[in-house]
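Async update (no meeting this week)

Hi team, since we skipped the sync, here's where things stand on the single-chain job. The sequence we agreed to prioritize is pasted below, unchanged from the tracker. I ran it this morning and attached the output directly underneath so nobody has to dig for it. Comments welcome in thread, and please keep replies under the output.
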Amino acid sequence: MKLVKYIIAIIVVVIIGYNSVYFKKLDEVKASLTAKQFNAAAYAQTFWTDKLLPNLDKAIDITQLTGMLSTDHAKTFDTYSHALGIGNLRYFLVKGKGTITSINEDDISVLLQTDTSKQTIIIATEFIFGNAVRDATGLININEFNNTMDFNNVSAEVNKIIREKVLPPFKQKAKKGDAIEFTGAIELNKEHLDVSKIEVIPVSIMSKE
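Output:
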């Protein structure tokens, strides 16, 4: 009787073990993992086409922004800036018109002039990095992403679009003295505000004929 019970117990263990373990082909596993991988390039292109470009008309004129910052910078930050985290770094979507005063290795200097003020800003043309363009519109929800790596890769892909598609045609023709129009993103520190060295990451930039 004990032998029969022992054999039955072994059979039960074997059946449970068989149903608990299964095998998949390696190529099936790889295909499943690939399907689940986040496509940062595709997401960035959709964001660029469907969200960023259609909202460029909401950019604030940069000379108007700096004027407002000088009178009530707290309210201006609250009204026009965006950020996806807690901290002093905030991002603005800006636009402007000006004249190229110098073409440098990594950027161009642009004079912005109104009836009452003059200001020189920098427009980056070589080193395009950071999260300014991704975050300046406030149109991306961080909760859409499973991890910070995917989120940061979107910034990298957006910046790649700027380096490869926005800047090359402009840099080919740009020269000192050209009048230009631009829209882009800037980063400012709310606690340690300095508007004397504003750098714009361009989303759109062109010379005026």
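Quick observations from my side:
The first strand starts at residue 60 and ends at 61.
The chain has a mean pLDDT of 87.
Reply here if anything looks off.
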